[in-house]
Amino acid sequence: MERRNGMKTLYEVLDGSSGDAEKLEKAGEILKAGGLVAFPTETVYGLGGDALNPTSSRKIYAAKGRPSDNPLIVHICRFSDLEKIAWDPDGKAALLAEAFWPGPLTMILKKKDIVPPETTGGLSTVAVRFPSHPAALGMIDAAGGFVAAPSANTSGKPSPTSAQYVAEDMDGKIDMILDGGDVGIGLESTIVDLTEDEPMILRPGYVTQEMLEKVLGGVSIDHTILDASSPQRPKAPGMKYRHYAPKGDLAIVEGEPERVTERINALCEKAAQEGKKTGVIAADETAALYRADSVKTVGSREDEEAIAHSLYRILREFDDEGVEVMYSEAFSSRGMGQAIMNRLLKAAGHHVIEA
Ligand code: AMP
Ligand code: MG
Q: 249 C-alpha to center of ligand 1: Å?
């Protein structure tokens, strides 16, 4: 692999064989020594460093170009490790852990002193997740149990759903990339804040509001993240940044399906006349109706898991193809659709056109 930025990045492929254990051990050694390792999880690829080592956290911010007020999620691999880093005064975290861990749910709790402020962006709270991906768990265990990891992309770019995308952003900047193939879910974890009286979703994800309510009763959602006109700041510091963004201009077109198709085709024609390369993001059901340089299907409109799985890959493919102007259909915002529309709105900088 090409060498950039002076550092040689080791690249190891995990194939599910007994040889993986040695690679995860090696990754653990690198992490314990203060190095950085990108690794697969069930949501997106993470960029890991020792969560209890302030130098490692500083290195993560530097490798991503991430603003230092945007805290990291601490990944654990045992239920019993939660109480070593966070307080759970009313037992809500234990209930959610039992229901959803290991899995794509991150909880915000008051932190214990062992977690350095460098890891939490200076906050007195800490974000904790227990992922389910076996390679992630093996690596966290080998690293000593606490791995701080944001998504393994350059800040502002779509989160990586394959090791190839990690390498595009991180080669030469980190010590190691563990390639575990394509991720399963494709969108980042749900974040729920448990530090106030009523639990609040700060970032929607695979674990939905309805699923959380079944366990906890009332759960609200931070509305600033779905409504661009809100004057309030989102409660998760990271949600205020333009994020997940492709290089070209993306807008979402909403309305009656037939009008959406007509409007997108007219907008693409206009852009093409201006000499711009055009792209469309559409559901399987309508993809054939579009005329653009590049039409990408996210899967069936009915299949939210397929849409979540392909969204970031498509945004990166448009970048690779040099697409300059993109239009996307809107998708349902029920259930996991809320997470999909949240990421799509952010990628579009909340640019929505009514058809
Ligand atoms: P990423 O690591 O790229 O998935 O982003 C992590 C997200 O979690 C960002 O939006 C952070 O702002 C958010 N986050 C992490 N720790 C906290 C915390 N203690 N309080 C609120 N949000 C947090
Ligand atoms: Mg991220």
A: 26
